[in-house]
Specification:
Blueprint lengths: L4 E5 L3 H13 L3 E6 L2 H10 L4 E5 L1 E2 L2 E2 L1 H9 L4 E5 L15 E3 L4 H13 L1
Parallel strand pairs: 1-2, 1-3, 3-6, 6-7
Antiparallel strand pairs: 4-5
Length: about 120
Amino acid sequence: MGQRSILVVEDEPLIAMMLEDFLESLGHSVTATCESVQDAMTVADRGGFDCAILDVNLKGESVWPVAERLREQQIPFVLATGGHVDPPPAQFANVPVIEKPYTVDRVTPALEAAFAV
């Protein structure tokens, strides 16, 4: 797959750091880490990354506006969930999902699937 620049949208700092470590160990770089929809929208508008991993629930706020913006910009993304959430809206039903807790062996297939969509 090669090295990718990735936006991480995750509201739990320790989980975000662990994911960043996994991504870097796989040869990718993390462009930015955002904890809120507002911050993620700002980074999405700025661009400069190849893919994003989006936690679907950011302190009770839905990540769907960010997903819509990325789709408009044709930037692939993966949805991350800790479980116990409603299924994604219909327009995101084909987006790859990675379940938490993240593991290094789940990250690569999810990213590959994002670029295949």
